[in-house]
Amino acid sequence: MYGVLLLIILRWIWLLIQTRFYPFVAHLYTFIAFISVVFFFFHLFWGLNYYREPLQKKLHIERLNYTKEELVQTTQKHIDRLNKIQLAITKNDSIPVRVPYKRRKMYKMASLQYRNFYLDSIDFHFKGKSIKSSLISTPLSYMGFSGYLNPFTGESQVNKKMIQTEIPITTCHEMAHQLGFASEGEANYVGYLACTDTDDLYFQFSGELLAVRHLLWSLARTDLALYKRQRARIHRGVLKNMQITHDFWDSYKNPLEPYFKKFYDLFLKANKQTKGIQEYNEMVGYLINNPL
Q1: What is the largest CA-CA distance in the chain?
Q2: Higher pLDDT, 16 or 48
Q3: Which of 44, 110, 135, 163 gets the most CB atoms within 10 Å of its CB?
Q4: pTM for the whole thing?
Q5: How far, in Å, CA of 202 to CA of 100, rounded?
């Protein structure tokens, strides 16, 4: 679908060049009409979720802000959980976790996980199974994205190039979008809950790894010395997992990536996510103020 859309846009640009943008007003009207139709269907099929009641109100959480002490305590707790899971899987604190599942199995496991998932009387029952590996995974990698929700078809698209440990949490994150949680911070938190509310250690590891990364990032912005102290508590095997993930994304870095991120940042801000791409880190407020 996106391929056809791209061809139509390229053909339209070619016609504009051929006609030297004459008549300009007519071409401008055509462009505005096209954007309006896309905008209408985007909101009709999914975009109205941006106007839903926030998850914070549904969970009766009074605040999402936090003190430095609360951040440190929560970071310690999740690092301990992550270390415990890594040790249970590998039996050695210096060995990185390797997920043994194929992608399709992880998609199925994520669907089953949402089937009986409840939180404070909120039903997260996931009825569909429209989760797939994206055909444009390579471009996604160069843009720096691990997945996305197709708002016109309701399908979760997962970057199949990613490191295996990222796939469970990414799948659960995109499925949270399918359930109508439009905010990236809310989708991160719901995805984390779905990933960790299971007996499967590999899913737990994937969810806790995301939580620790966001907590450490917040701590680094608050107090660099505390960040270094907490990071030193992480098992060497987990640090190797973090480095593997970093090396993967670093291998796809390119001069255009910041522009893709900036465009997405503006897109989020235009859709009631005032913090833009920083919205992903809002899950820290949930982890601290709604401890499980």
Answers
A1: 71
A2: 48
A3: 110
A4: 0.89
A5: 9
Q: How far apart are CA 54 and CA 282, in angstroms?
A: 12
Q: Which residue has the tokens 């990236």?
A: 184
Q: Which helix (H) or strand (E) holds 112?
A: helix 103-115
Cis peptide leading into residue 23 (ω within 30°): yes
Residue found under tokens 């951040």: 71
CA distance 285 to 57: 13
More confidently predicted of 92 and 262:
92
The residue type at 100: P
Q: Which residue has the tokens 């109508």?
A: 180
What distance in Å separates the CA atoms of residue 283 and residue 85, rounded to the nearest whole number? 21
78 half-sphere exposure, CB direction, 13 A CA radius:
28
- Contact (Cβ atoms closer than 8 angstroms) between residue 196 and residue 188: no
Structure tokens at 147: 């997945």
3-class state of residue 223 by DSSP: coil
Which has the minimum average pLDDT: 181-185, 265-269, 282-286? 265-269
Taking alpha carbons only, the member of 216, 185, 198, 209 closest to residue 61 is: 185
Q: Are 208 and 81 contacting, i.e. CB atoms less than 8 angstroms apart?
A: yes
